[in-house]
Fold each of these.
Amino acid sequence: MEDTILSVEKLSFRYPNQSDYAVQNVTFQVKRGEWLAIVGHNGSGKSTIAKLLIGLLRPESGVIKLFHTVLDERTVWEIRRRVGMVFQNPDNQFVGTTVEDDVAFALENNGIPRDEMIKRVHEALRQVQMEEFLHHEPHHLSGGQKQRVAIAGILALRPDLIILDEATSMLDPKGRQEVLDTVRNLNKKQRITVLSITHDLEEVAKADRVIVMNKGEMMAEGTPKQIFALGTKLERIGLDLPFAVKIRDRLKQRGIPLSSSYVTIEELVEELWTLYLKR
Amino acid sequence: MDIIFEKVEHVYNANSPFARRALYDVDIMIESGSYVAVIGHTGSGKSTLLQHLNGLLQPTSGTVTVGNQTITNKKRQRDLKPLRKKVGIVFQFPEHQLFEETVEKDICFGPMNFGVPEEEAKKKARELMKLVGLPEDVLAKSPFDLSGGQMRRVAIAGVLAMEPDVIVLDEPTAGLDPRGRKEIMEMFYRLHQEKQLTTVLVTHSMEDAAAYADYMIVMHKGTVWKTGTPQQIFQDSDALAEIGLNVPETVRLKKELEKKLGITVPSPCLTIEETVDAIQKLFSKVNAHDE
């Protein structure tokens, strides 16, 4: 039996003094070990969902269950111990005076013994390739380095669920790749469940399953391939198709007979090669 | 107004046990009216570099020349004020710097600090609304009631209100969704063309660098690794990969195609349009040849 780690039922939320719902009637589940991506334009409600999930905001209606426990005022603290959240801007999540202290902060709070703490701090920093910065001051690091340290702080706690709220949007392409590879690794090897909130459809391609949000409501749900098949529908709601799909669609418009499914650059080159040889 | 860096070095916390050299041996030239992209891996010194452009940081050795102003480590901070007016910096997440009660007051704050009369500053604020693509009624609102994308436009208007000759953009689209990203980049390109605004773009997006810049500066470990046109810079994807950078996806596709098909694609493929054109040509050429 597959274990449902997170279940959201008919969730609705409005910000104070707003008549429009930021999140309206949203229902979904996440299974243990799964990577679910929630994608949408700015203001589509995706970040509001993240805040609702860790109890930073309280729903107007609907039920959130994490690890089979209903999220409410009594359970929120216990639930938060098992959920790690990485926010977009790393400057707002630093407490330690050195990288080492910062990663150790939450471990200390949770009463982890010192020897174990040292081991986990090193291990977590190694996973995000920031081990050589152990004694640096966080505010002297660049944006991408800070974010990797913030992720290490969460990895050290070995959470059951990691929520990435636009967490890679400030990293350079290689840094982003490293972080996503790290997360994928944790997801596959340690079965840590991942919920990534993003507007980057390249990042979406790495997920097992995707939810598309538009104006507070769920517009679509499916595998990345199914989602990318929506094509221009995604562009119309302010999202960007993966590069190879964009090129493929434009070439098709100009009469080059390519297939319709989601493609990577490699697959596109393969297809073009076949067509080229046939001529 | 040309910008010239000569042997610029910057050491943070110099003469202390925490000293850290962030820049060294930086020699660059940014021509007046050009659009220059600065790229480099996280921590390569890009942000330190850009803070030298308007004297927020002074070189610990070497010289920065902006127009007729020279900045060295000897210069007093107060003499740098005129420079701040000429060089506007749009920092990452500029909306975090909004503070006034209304959008109008926020935009007028800079010019009025430099002695522009209130009426004139307000008139300027109204013009700027159009320029950054916001409706005029936003002026009366609190900046904190706006959406993220609108706040960013207001912050950008605040920088433009100083009528700078040079605008420096540090990852100006970070955190925006794809549509917002495109709109902001197009807006800066329009400003660059219409006002001959010298534009310095610090970015992680090779696609933006390829699409907009005339000239590129590649930073690596605190110094200049290479300079050239986007076409020159993106020629050698292996060398770029070694310092942790990619080529734009269009160039990657071109290279993969060339390898697989055993041909040479003459177009530099710096934008999607160029790439689609180049691929289409490939097929029509074959047709012509067959006939």
Amino acid sequence: MGHMDDTSRTIKFQVKGKAYTFAPLTEDQQAALLVMPRGIRGVQKVFRILEISLGPEQYDALTDRIIDRDDTLAFGDAAKAVERLLKESAKTTDSDDE
Amino acid sequence: MTSDPYAMISRTPVNLAVAGVRVEVPYAPAGAWMVELRQPFTVALTMSDTASQDRLLDAMVERGGVAGPLRTASLDLLRQVSGRPFWWETLRLAGLGAGDLLGEMTLRGVDPWSVSLGQWCSAVYAACTRNAKLEDVLKFDAQLGFPPPGYEDEWDDGVDLDATEAAMANFAGLSNGG
């Protein structure tokens, strides 16, 4: 349920050895990440943003890796992925403005 | 626009609508505001109650179109809670009080965690203008009230330029004869 104007634009990078394709974060999602409350409320919303960006299939695969821990993908790795996604999305937004 | 003396001392919540989202901002002391003023464009979210924060963040994540109105609402909120005529006055006075004047304010016994933002700004203003010459007070007022770059259009000092021009035109000798 992403709300991108241009759905063809994507961001690709690996999270602990596996490649994922993300939809860039919207301006509102980027702004929301900068003011997320601490604790579980913030975590839930951050993972919802990740779900929207990844789409349901990739999101399930990623979270299964966290739950199973079969390839040592930790919660912190997902958080780092969101951080990188934010940076990459900001670049996309900036280049749109030019 | 003029100051709102009741807002300066008010302890009642402020209710807003941001992009159709209902937001309630409970009373918080000046200290809490000053911490959040590092990001003034989002205070309508960061200073709102938990339920309002959740509604706003959900709207930002799921549907968008909130970031712009949030920015506008945040700046207007700064004006409302402090009772100052312009939001930039609030930012400037709060900033002065958190910086160079903090020691002076502390020595005078004004604790930002025990007064409203409006009271804090008024105390800072008093510290800046007390014992100053009239011309220095006027200069300080002018610097305080002048809008930051990019916000000149928000500056409304209550003078109706069209009405003034029409009134002047009626004075004998000032008419251009048209």
